[in-house]
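Q: Protein A?
A:
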Amino acid sequence: MVKSRYKVFSPLEIKGFRDEKISLEDIDSVLSEALITKGITTKLAGGKVSNVYSFFHDGQKRVLKISKGLYRINELKREADILRLLVKDNEMYIVPEIRCFKMLDNIGYLIEDFINGVTVREKLRTIMNVLERQDIWEKVGQVLSRIHGLYKLVDKNGEWLEGQLRIAEINMKHAILDSCEFQEQSPEEMLKWLKGNKPVQNKVCLLHGDFRTKNIMIDYKENMIVLDWGFVDVGDPYYDLAIIDYYFDDDKDRQGFYRGYKCCSYDRALIDYYVKMSKFINV
């Protein structure tokens, strides 16, 4: 089982974080080490945790993720760990299969299967019919419910939330935050509000940590495959629910999602709380 982020990322490690750019030499080193022929990779849309490429090997299309620096490498390793764990627990239908994860000096790389399909974000852009949209959202809700149902724990003393708030404060003090996220309220004011309005939640579960429509693929069999697990965590399920809430166009989208999710009702106050918290954590 993966550990909560607050148990893994020490204050010293967070303070030493800096976003290191991946050079062409870094890519060549990984390709050579992984025995991938140079010059055949295609850059895909990467995220904060890693640069992402596709390549062909033995006639099969794969995905190569490269991270640089201890902090980002640890996030990529956590992604590799949870992919292995989910496949081992026969949940391979909701994640891509991992082929390997390796570290080489100040670089980490992960190779996984390429998923042929379209993202939920792309799919929803082409659909205006209310019932069709609700059907997609219902399936998205079912997938997240499945993820949240895999590992359920009790956190009687609210340790996860306290740990998240500690990480939030360290990220703020060391200027790791995205200033665009704080146009209406300063980080200091928002963090003070978060500390003063802590919800009493004692149930924690496996979290994706970045559950957005761009991270959910619909493959050719209409399966929902969840990508990009670099922010994986163990905490309040409302953290994931808060992130996906931004992508509902209206209440009908939301109703479709919660019909599939089933496990709890919509709570606007908790959604708002964790939306604010995510600005400090997903950096």
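Q: Protein B?
A:
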Amino acid sequence: MDGERLLELGGQLYGGLPAAFTPDRAAAEKAARADGDKELATAIKALRKPSVGAWAVNVLVRREAGQIDQVLELAQSLRAAAEAMDGAELRGLTRQRRQLTSALTTRARQLALERGSRLTQTVADQVEGTLNAAMLDAGAAAAVRTGLLVTTISATGLDDLSWESAVAVPSALGTRAAPIEGKAAGSGPALRVVPENKQVKREGARERLAEAEAEVAAAAKSAQQTDQAVSDLQGKRFQLRSEIDELQRRIHEIDSRLDGLDEDIEVAEQDQEDAADALRTAQGERDRAQAALDELG
């Protein structure tokens, strides 16, 4: 397989538009098969489509090669200052790092807009996180330089990450993406911050507003649902309270009937006792009359 050809095709695929990636990959695979290079065709077919954030970083690396070089050169100085424990220099370089990565993220959003794609705030955060990771770790920097990222990367858990898995063609690690649109990757001008674009800032503000409005709508819906839940529970409580009141009314009624029955039982028991006395008296009179009859023979 022609490794250089794969890297060249990779540069074209990962530097193009996200929507064109799949059809362009299919066309490249078909062309390789037509040329009889089945191994290259298989390798092309295996190329993963990049996430939107990874695509934005790839475009940025090719379009702003000089600025990326400045970022990574600053990263080397930052790591050296950290190792030397130079607090003042470290703080100054950290501020520069934040300014430059933020500015480059703004530039990435502008480049995406120029290509008809708006980066959401979440994706922009992923882009900035990838740039920060590249400044903190040489392996991440090598992955970013290839311009063949398939996913954004993070500065957390650096020891556990395999940068090869973040790159479409792992053998590309150690190479640099070819710059486009006449932007050469040299030492460039002195370290500076990329000017912010008002259109990108406006789009970012609109995105944050849209996200905030979505959160408000979700919170309002949740509040409405909880209000309805409280109302339903209060209705059930009222129903149960009514049932309790009805049961208590019936208990009171039954208690009154029970009191009446107790009185009737008391009268009946007295009548029972009087009847028993009368029976005993009558039986005594009968016994005496029988005895008198018996004496007369």
